[in-house]
UniProtKB/TrEMBL annotation, chain A:
<feature type="transmembrane region" description="Helical">
    <location>
        <begin position="117"/>
        <end position="140"/>
    </location>
</feature>
<feature type="transmembrane region" description="Helical">
    <location>
        <begin position="94"/>
        <end position="111"/>
    </location>
</feature>
<dbReference type="InterPro" id="IPR001851">
    <property type="entry name" value="ABC_transp_permease"/>
</dbReference>
<keyword id="KW-1003">Cell membrane</keyword>
<dbReference type="Pfam" id="PF02653">
    <property type="entry name" value="BPD_transp_2"/>
</dbReference>
<feature type="transmembrane region" description="Helical">
    <location>
        <begin position="202"/>
        <end position="220"/>
    </location>
</feature>
<feature type="transmembrane region" description="Helical">
    <location>
        <begin position="323"/>
        <end position="344"/>
    </location>
</feature>
<protein>
    <submittedName>
        <fullName>ABC transporter permease</fullName>
    </submittedName>
</protein>
<keyword id="KW-0472">Membrane</keyword>
TrEMBL record, chain B:
<feature type="signal peptide">
    <location>
        <begin position="1"/>
        <end position="27"/>
    </location>
</feature>
<dbReference type="InterPro" id="IPR006311">
    <property type="entry name" value="TAT_signal"/>
</dbReference>
<keyword id="KW-0732">Signal</keyword>
<dbReference type="Pfam" id="PF02608">
    <property type="entry name" value="Bmp"/>
</dbReference>
<dbReference type="InterPro" id="IPR052910">
    <property type="entry name" value="ABC-Purine-Binding"/>
</dbReference>
<protein>
    <submittedName>
        <fullName>BMP family ABC transporter substrate-binding protein</fullName>
    </submittedName>
</protein>
<feature type="domain" description="ABC transporter substrate-binding protein PnrA-like">
    <location>
        <begin position="32"/>
        <end position="315"/>
    </location>
</feature>
<dbReference type="InterPro" id="IPR003760">
    <property type="entry name" value="PnrA-like"/>
</dbReference>
């Protein structure tokens, strides 16, 4: 018989080993799924994990990994700080939208003036937009004790409606023949978040994402605030005795994650996306939650998890194309990844004993 | 032969991308035609009809053509990558089948001047980018006539997606022709701001039915409106695809998007080397807009009347927007004997006289 025994402290080996094992198990289970659909599992797995990195057109797809991973990492870093402190911001998607709207509005208001100040102004406005949207659940929690999970999630839908109103109204391209959507910021030099080196995918958003990884690493390991975040999450009572003000912590965690999500939003619409349309948001804010946990809430882990997630997206598209795999199969494959990761979490906190007492 | 087999096996081996480029040198290789879908072929509406067009291309050309599609592609950066993937993998003709793919299509087209692109419902062309659309308003004139005849309350409900010219043309055309046969006809418009959301569409249908509407039209893609119409015992029309599952009632007819003739024509043009970047806008006359079978619920004389109107539009004898017509605010739009020009129609942002309510801005 199997028996589970709680470990006195979580296993360091398994906390790093489980993501790798989860990826391997996903490959096996996913391969079986692909085989049942009548596709060669080895080729499918190869299309997803190998082709974008080392395939014939890898020079195009490698930069695309950065484009896709950039916003995921940026948002996930912010979320991870809150998650460590048990502050659950589920509404990053809304903060992402509001960041894009605020930053994008600055650019559209200035159109067609060219100035080197415009881009920094857009970025600041984007961060503020996300920050303010995250402050709503923060203040409601501090003042009235509301549940930030619900409030932040519900505000996603509010943000989506504001987006739809603005995309069809004030932000609509006056030269767009009545069609919805803003001007394309890629065609507005001062506002365009272009690749810093052409065709590398390395735009300011990706740079910011890397900086956020480094910043979060230092914060968590070297700064008192990082210590307070960890303590508050693991032992709230102890944190109070150590002088941590839980309200301040709620505001800081939601504020940082909101601002980072807002930044991701403005970098996206000013760069790879180009346009604010009623459906420009494609769920980065929600996917980032998976990335944060896949990365163990650790900055470096999130960096790797974001790249892995981007790889399954881009590789998934390649498998759709070269093997005619349906999108649903790819999504199931991505779902398996999270499933195995969470299931294997057991190994981090428990030891499996075979035999012994029942 | 061996080389061909090698190519075939390698393509399956997942290295199709690189070899697709090398293989282009071989004259005998099939022409690869790619499609980008905003939804899934199983939506029973918009994407389904594009996929039917793709299948028609495969059937028509047999081994001479190979088609591929990528489904559920979000608009924005993801669309650009998906289109680039098709371009990199040796596709020589690429159809991007949603309005929102416009800028992405143009961006990719700039990088691949030798590949032909076709963008559905857009308005920006380039040396290697054509646009195509269908004159759905022609079909609306026909079903508007049926709606006017079939409505007892005179209230016709219209579930509209987005306030863009294509949708506004449809509302105006349906209203004008309903009013012609039924002077009491009123148009009740609900904007749902989605192309496909069964729940929202059903809510809108319920609200309209509660207001006394007894004929429903929709410019959205799901069959949820049909289901509501069936419950309430009112009439409705299939949209984009035939939706025959709901015939003979509530579905009394339908407007079908038939892209097959256009897709075959354009594929042939690429094979022949005669492809040009056109802005195609075809209607009933070219078979791109098809009126689905009119069910037995509709009296024979109404059916004949509708068919006669369809034929007159198809032959070019009659234009659905013919004067005298005023705008909603009462100002003159078209004089007696005058027909609307395409430029006005493709930027249409006003209701015609008689429609109540405002177009959301």
């Amino acid at each position: 018989m199997f028996r589970l025994e709680k470990r006195p402290t979580p296993s360091t080996f398994w906390s790093w080993g489980t993501p790798v094992l989860a990826v391997i198990l996903t490959m096996i289970a996913g391969g079986m799924l692909f085989a049942m659909l009548g596709k060669d599992p080895v080729l499918a797995i190869k299309a997803i994990f190998w082709e974008p990195l080392f395939g014939a057109n890898a020079s195009y797809f490698r930069p695309q990994l950065l484009v896709k991973a950039g916003p995921l990492i940026l948002i996930a870093i912010g979320l991870s700080l809150g998650f460590r402190a048990a502050v659950w911001n589920i509404g990053a998607e809304g903060q992402y939208i509001m960041g894009a709207l605020c930053g994008g509005s600055v650019a559209l208001a200035a159109y067609p003036a060219e100035s080197f100040l415009l881009f920094p102004a857009m970025i600041i406005a984007g961060a503020i937009g996300g920050f303010i949207w995250a402050m709503i659940p923060a203040l409601l929690k501090i003042r009235f004790g509301t549940n930030e999970i619900l409030v932040s999630l519900m505000l996603v839908y509010v943000a989506e409606n504001i987006l739809s109103t603005l995309a069809f109204g004030p932000l609509k391209n006056p030269e767009g023949f009545g069609f919805p959507g803003s001007r394309n910021l890629q065609q507005y030099p001062s506002a365009h978040n272009a690749d810093l080196i052409a065709n590398t995918g390395l735009h300011w958003g990706v740079v910011t994402a890397f900086l956020a990884v480094i910043g979060a690493y230092i914060l968590l390991n070297r700064h008192i605030l990082g210590f307070q975040i960890s303590v508050a999450g693991q032992a709230p009572r102890a944190a109070r005795f150590a002088g941590v003000n839980p309200n301040t912590l709620v505001a800081i965690c939601l504020g940082i994650s909101g601002a980072l999500a807002g930044l991701a939003g403005i970098f996206e619409v000013a760069g790879p996306g180009g346009q604010i349309t009623d459906s420009f948001n494609v769920g980065y804010g929600f996917t980032a939650i998976i990335v944060a946990f896949l990365g163990r809430l650790h900055p470096v882990g999130i960096l790797l998890a974001g790249l892995l997630m981007a790889l399954t997206y881009i590789g998934g598209e390649m498998a759709q194309l070269s093997l005619s795999l349906p999108l649903a199969a790819i999504q199931a494959f991505q779902g398996m990844l999270l499933f195995f990761l969470l299931a294997l979490d057991l190994l981090t906190n428990f030891r499996i004993r075979i035999g012994g007492l029942i | 032969m061996k080389r061909r087999q090698f190519l075939a096996t390698s393509a399956i081996a997942g290295t199709a991308l690189g070899l697709g480029l090398a293989g282009a040198a071989l004259a005998q290789d099939p022409l690869k035609v790619g499609f980008i879908y905003v939804g899934v072929p199983g939506d029973g509406g918009w994407t389904y009809q594009h996929d039917q067009g793709r299948l028609a291309v495969e059937e028509h050309f047999g081994d001479a053509v190979e088609t591929t599609f990528i489904e559920n592609v979000p608009e924005g950066a993801d669309a650009e990558r998906a289109i680039t993937q098709l371009a990199l993998s040796g596709h020589k003709l690429i159809f991007t089948t949603s309005f929102g793919f416009m800028d992405a299509t143009l961006n990719v087209a700039q990088k691949f001047p030798d590949i032909k692109f076709e963008h559905a419902t857009g308005y920006k062309q380039a040396p290697n980018v054509a646009t195509y659309d269908a004159r759905f308003y022609e079909g609306r004139a026909v079903i508007g006539t049926i709606a006017g005849r079939m409505s007892k309350t005179g209230k016709i409900g219209y579930i509209a997606s987005f306030p863009i010219p294509e949708v506004i043309q449809g509302i105006n055309s349906a209203y004008i022709h309903a009013k012609k046969v039924n002077p009491d006809a009123q148009m009740k418009v609900v904007w749902v701001y989605t192309w496909f959301d069964p729940a929202k569409e059903a809510d809108a249908a319920s609200a309209l039915i509660a207001e006394g509407v007894d004929v429903l039209m929709q410019h959205t893609d799901s069959t949820a409106v049909m289901a509501k119409a069936q419950e309430a015992g009112v009439y409705a029309f299939g949209q984009a695809s035939d939706m025959t599952a709901y015939a003979p009632k509530p579905r009394i007819s339908s407007i079908i998007d038939n892209w097959a003739p256009y897709y075959i024509e354009r594929t042939q043009a690429v094979i022949d080397g005669t492809w040009e970047p056109l802005a195609s806008w075809k209607g009933i006359g070219d078979g791109e807009v098809v009126i689905g079978e009119i069910s037995d619920e509709v009296p024979a004389e109404v059916r004949d009347e509708a068919m006669a109107l369809r034929d007159k539009i198809g032959s070019g004898e009659y234009h659905p927007f013919s004067g005298p017509l005023n705008k909603q605010d009462g100002s003159a739009w078209l004089a007696e004997g005058e027909a609307a020009d395409d430029a006005t129609l493709s930027g249409m942002n006003f209701y015609v006289e008689g429609i109540e309510g405002e177009i959301p801005q």
